[in-house]
Every structure is written in structure tokens, then in C-alpha cells.
User: Fold Meteorin-like protein from Castor canadensis.
Amino acid sequence: MRGAARAARGRAGQLWPRPPVPGPGPPPPLLLLLLLLAVLLGGVGAQYSSDLCSWKGSGLTHEAHSKDVEQVYLRCSAGSVEWMYPMGALIINLRTNTFSPTRHLTVCIKPFRDSSGANIYLEKTGELRLLVRDGGSELGQVQCFGLEQGGLFVEATPQQDISRRTTGFQYELMNGHRGLDLRALSAPCRPCSDTEVLLAVCTSDFVVRGSIQNITHVPEQQESVIHLRVSRLHRQKTKVFQPAPEGDSHWQGHVTTLLECGVRPGPGDFLFTGHVHFGEAQLGCAPRFSDFQRMYRDAEERGLNPCEIGME
Assistant:
């Protein structure tokens, strides 16, 4: 495996054919341009589907050279990789122009629950550290690492039958060092300070006023699911909360938090804030709405509000 990773580094510059030996005279500029386009289009072909965020490909294109290593380049803060009939290996190059510098980026991946056919490693200078074992218990679980720790190396495992096997995962890039567990992004098991609440209102993916309908504890995932009835939707970047079916101008949805926080249902309205990772809303600061009103108006009087929010 280490040899494959090192060999991949050496072959990375050999993706394109060598230029032809010059003949008696240089070809006309237009002909040269057409030849170059033919080489590029022929090399890329329709074997893989890729944009700046996600990649989808098939190992069957390398059946004759099952040890081939394919370079995949992605330039988004979030996306996915889906490798059907895995053979050989992939090097996943994750970069984004959204954050700078890249050495302070944290990468989190969430393997598909039905992912199979390959192991996923963290690779740096030919050294491999296993992140997700083919068929292992890590499937469906989020893992995070600093980009300076290495890149993703996906290697197909030996299979007698590769049919119906697909290796895949979602990824997210975040600025700053967040540790090696996405759970660290959740709200701490304590009330947020006034400053933390006011900043959360400005920076969260969702900000809603509502009440707790029910709480479901999921011990095997070490999380609690909080089902909400939302009376005021201040902001949401994704459709976490949907209109209630009874059509009474309310919304409904759920957020998750750590099981160890021991969250319990309580009466009254709260202001719920948080972020969305891999399609799941994670709870941030959640003060009682009356407490938020107090701290917001106090900051407003002193001109210390980092942003404005409707209080009606």
C-alpha cells in the first residue's frame, strides 16, 4: 500500500502524453491548437463525471491495469466522491479558494453506510493511516483531520466479484482546527454566554424561535434528537425546517446534540441556533427567548450588537 502511494506520486506528472517529436517544420498555430484539444479531450473522455465539488467514476476503466492510481481534484468546501466497481486506487486532492491559508483547514468525511470495495486512508509522504476499513464499523460515522496531516488515499480491496460494489463518502472543509471529531462542533454542555449567543445569531446556519415537542435519545450514535415546533423562522441556509402539515403558519424539524448533555424537554419558547453538517442540523446556543430578548436589547442600547435580528 505504501509503495502504491509513492508510485502514485511519481506517476502524477505522466497523465498526459509526451509531445510529438518535431518534424521538418512546426505545424500551423491553428493545427497545433486542434491537436492539443484532441489530446486533452481524449485524455479526459466520458469515463468520469466530475465538477469542482463532486466526483463519480468507475474502476472498470482501469480493468487492464488494476493497479492504476487515479488523481481526483476537488475545489469546493463540500461535496462527495462515488467510486463504482473500485479497482486500483484514488488520490483525492481537496483544496478550496474559500479559505486561506489551506494549512489551517479541517477535513471531515462521512462514508456512505453501504460503502464497500475499498479502504480509505490518510496519506502523507507515503505513510498510510487507516480511516475507514472496507465493511468496518466506521461506515456512516464522521471523521475529521487537519489538512496538514495528509490527504485521502482510497485503495480497492481484493475482490472476487466487484459487481454492486461502490465506495463513497461525503466531505466538508472547514476553516480552523476543530480537533478530530465533528462532535466538537456541537454546543458545549453548558449555557452559552451573552457574547456567544449574539455571535451565534450572526454566524449560524439556522436561527429559529420555537418550542420543544419531543426528545429522542439514540445511545448507539451518542446523540439526542430534539424535535421542534417553530413559530418564527429567522434564517436557515438549508431546508432543515419545513412548513407544518396542519398549515397553521408554523414549521417543524429536528436538531441533534450530544447524548452526554442530558437535554430534557422544557416549556416555553427558545431561540435555537446551530450549523448543518452532512445534512444534519446540529444544535448550537439555545437560550430561552426571554433571556435572548434581554441580552439583545442590552447590547443594542450599548451599540454592541454584531448584527440585527427582528424581535417582533
